[in-house]
Each structure stands twice: as C-alpha cells, then as structure tokens.
C-alpha cells in the first residue's frame, strides 16, 4: 500500500519519515449515494466562509478598491472567528479585480485571529512557482500555528487569454494546462513534505555534497492540502495523491441528476479511491453553497427576488456543466432544505460563499444568521461545545 512519501512525488529526494499507512475501516460504496451520505451523518461538521474578493467602484459597493478587499477580508475573518465560524477562505484570480496574492493576506488573517482556519479555494497552480510557493505556504502555516488549509487546482475560467504564460509558465510541447498544474502540484507536495529538490554546492558547504530541501518546513502541512475538483474522475485522482477534496461550486459534467446528488457521488468515489490507496488518515471534504437567510428588509431588498433556487445547466469551455442552486429564504426553510442536500450531508466542511462587496457588517450578520438558525440543522455545533479527545 501507498504512504504519503510515494506516488507523484517519487522523483524527488527522501522525505521526512512517515508512519506506514493503515487500512481504512470505512469504505463507502459507489452505488447508493444516499446510503453513503447517511453513513457520514455523525462526522463533525465545520462551517467556513468563502470570499471571491471582488472590488468595484460602483453604486452600492462597500468594497471599492484593492485595499478595501484585502482589509475587509481580514476584518471578516476576525468577525467570523468571534461568531464561532471554523474557516476563512478566499478565492484566487489573476488579471481581475479580485484577490490575487493569497499568502500575505492569509498571514494577516492569521495574525489577527487565534483559532479559525485560513485557506484558499483555490490557487491556480498554472501561475505558481512550486518551490517559492512551498516556502510561502510553510511560513504562513508556521505563523498561524498550523491553521493553513490550502486549496489548489488547475484553476477556473478567467478573463486573461493564456494568462499563466504571461507569468512565464508555458506548458511543454504536447502537454496541457491541466498537466502543467498537476506537475507543479507534484513538485509543491514534494517540497512541503521535506523532500530534497536541489543539489548542494560543495563550494558553500565545506566540500560536503548532497541535496537540499526547501526551508522552512511546517510539519503536518502536507495533510492540509486540498485539490479543487470539478469531476468524479478528478476526485478519484485527488484521492490517489493523498489530498483532501474541495468539491467545486460547479461540476464540469452532467448526468441528469440533481447537483447535490452528483456531487455526493463524486465524494463517495473520492472516499472509495482514498480507501483503495491505503492512506493512514481520514481525508477532509468540503462543498460550497450560497446560503442567504432572509431576516430583514435589507436582505429582502438584495435577495428576495433571487431566481437561482434550481440547478443551472450550461456549457463551460465547451463542456456541459451543472451549477448548484442558491439557498435563499426564511431561515427555518433554509435549514430544512440544506439538511436534505446530499453533498452537504456527505462533506465534513461547508463553505458559505459570501457577497463580499456588501461589506463586512452585512456579511458578518449573514454568517451569524447561518450559524444560529441554519447550521445546527446539518449537525454543526459551536466550537466551544464540541467534545474533544
């Protein structure tokens, strides 16, 4: 069976030793998704927010500049922690008026908080230097005392044409953007696992030869890397790499079943592939949802006429895709609907996408309404009330 030191990182030098993997006891099947979901109902639930970090100087926007987006992201993380929320996640986009360089922001979030997880959903690996990214990720993880939850992936549709090539990263001939992202991810995972990635210079080491690892190293970070997956096949690939699953806000496939059931099947396949790979820990799984409780006239003004209460199906980059619905309405009704969402039941982490341009005060109140009135219906309890070993 496979250990965390093998697989896609095996072309690099020795890793920090890890314990041999054990057999997984829970093996969710591929057939009955609802049964697999039910088997996960006792998993400790976590709630986080996911901000796309938009800014625009337009009427009604409380986030008008890049500075506003950065400062308010930190302030929302502070407010979320006070409310008992478990995670503060940001989306990363380039060549757009959105958050683009996550590590300084995550470090600032970590410096202003003490408990909440800080993370990304997701970093587009096509744009990254894997070794420099490994140094930055380790530094943020050490500063946060092990609270970094880093989501990475091939990236999503963007405004730039061949944007990563402008950063100097061109896929080798015969390769694709997806392969470039996976190759970079393999090197990144090797680096944060302590593998040696470069030869030492004997002229600078007193004549000693050998190979060097990046520094600093942050123990445990390797187990807190997630892959943003938009298909069932990539979810299975994610499991084989030993990464946690961050199921996308859309799936780049459509089998005709509701989005939550398709996503739950994706998660079940991920867990089966994880068990088959023989990893020695339980993986984490997150899903994202737009949840907008209507509790005030202002909420009603913004979202009372929202029409996206059904799945959406369309063509994305030439492929038929299915988008999940928004949950909008009275808190009691939202709690009942969300508790029936098959993928929410299957995942251990629910990320609430926030309308960040409405500002910190509005979104803090939104999160408060979610954790008070909606989250308990899916099994979430405030951190202070959770049983600890």
How would you describe the overall organization of this protein?
This protein has about 400 residues and is of the alpha/beta class. It has one domain (about 45-155, about 175-200, about 215-375): TIM Barrel (Alpha-Beta Barrel), CATH 3.20.20.30. The protein contains twelve helices and 14 strands. Helix 4 crosses helix 6 (about 175-190). The longest helix is centred in the C-terminal third of the chain and has 19 residues, at about 260-275. It is globular. Residues about 1-10, about 15-40 and about 315-320 have low confidence and may be disordered.
What topology does this entry show?
Blueprint: H1 33-39, E1 46-51, H2 66-83, E2 87-90, H3 102-112, E3 117-124, H4 130-143, E4 148-153, H5 163-166, H6 177-192, E5 198-199, E6 211-212, E7 225-229, H7 232-241, E8 244-247, E9 250-251, H8 259-277, E10 285-293, H9 297-303, E11 312-316, E12 319-323, E13 326-329, H10 331-339, H11 342-346, E14 349-354, H12 360-374
Parallel strand pairs: 1-2, 1-14, 2-3, 3-4, 4-7, 7-8, 8-10, 10-13, 10-14
Antiparallel strand pairs: 5-6, 9-12, 11-12
Helix content estimate: 25-40%
State the CATH superfamily name: Luciferase-like domain
Largest sheet, order of strands side by side?
Answer: 1-2-3-4-7-8-10-14
Number of helices: 12
Sum up the overall morphology in one term.
globular
Using the coordinates shown, work out and report the CATH topology: TIM Barrel
User: How large is the radius of gyration?
Assistant: 21 Å
> Architecture, CATH level 2?
Alpha-Beta Barrel
Poorly predicted runs are 1-11, 15-39, 313-322
How many beta strands in the DSSP annotation?
14
So what's the CATH class?
Alpha Beta
Average pLDDT works out at: 86
């Amino acid at each position: 069976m496979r250990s965390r030191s093998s697989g896609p990182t095996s072309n690099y030098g020795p890793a920090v030793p890890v314990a041999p993997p054990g057999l997984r006891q829970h093996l969710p099947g591929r057939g009955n998704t609802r049964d697999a979901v039910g088997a996960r109902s006792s998993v400790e639930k976590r709630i986080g927010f996911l901000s796309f970090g938009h800014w625009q100087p337009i009427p009604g926007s409380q986030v008008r500049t890049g500075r506003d987006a950065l400062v308010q992201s930190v302030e929302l993380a502070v407010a979320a922690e006070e409310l008992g929320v478990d995670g503060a996640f940001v989306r990363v986009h380039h060549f757009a008026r959105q958050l683009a360089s996550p590590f300084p922001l995550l470090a600032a979030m970590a410096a202003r908080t003490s408990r909440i997880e800080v993370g990304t959903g997701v970093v587009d690996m096509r744009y990254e230097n894997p070794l420099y990214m490994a140094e930055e990720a380790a530094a943020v993880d050490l500063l946060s005392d092990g609270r970094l939850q880093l989501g990475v992936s091939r990236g999503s549709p963007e405004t730039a044409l061949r944007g990563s090539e402008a950063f100097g990263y061109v896929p080798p001939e015969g390769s694709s953007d997806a392969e470039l992202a996976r190759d970079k991810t393999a090197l990144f995972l090797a680096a944060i696992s302590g593998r040696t990635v470069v030869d030492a210079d004997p002229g600078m080491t007193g004549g000693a030869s050998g190979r060097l690892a990046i520094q600093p190293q942050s123990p445990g970070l390797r187990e807190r890397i997630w892959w943003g997956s938009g298909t069932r096949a990539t979810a299975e690939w994610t499991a084989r790499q030993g990464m946690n699953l961050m199921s996308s806000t859309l799936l780049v496939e459509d089998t005709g079943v509701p989005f939550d059931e398709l996503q739950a099947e994706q998660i079940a396949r991920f867990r089966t592939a994880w068990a088959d790979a023989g990893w020695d820990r339980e993986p984490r799984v997150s899903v994202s949802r737009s949840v907008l409780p209507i509790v005030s006239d202002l909420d009603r003004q913004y979202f009372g006429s929202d029409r996206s209460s059904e799945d959406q199906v369309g063509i994305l980059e030439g492929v038929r895709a299915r988008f999940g619905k928004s949950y909008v309405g009275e808190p009691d009704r939202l709690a009942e609907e969300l508790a029936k969402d098959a993928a929410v039941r299957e995942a251990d982490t629910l990320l609430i996408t926030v309308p960040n341009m409405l500002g910190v005060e509005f979104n803090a109140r939104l999160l408060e309404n979610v954790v008070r009135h909606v989250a308990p219906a899916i099994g979430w309890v405030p951190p202070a009330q959770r049983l600890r070993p």
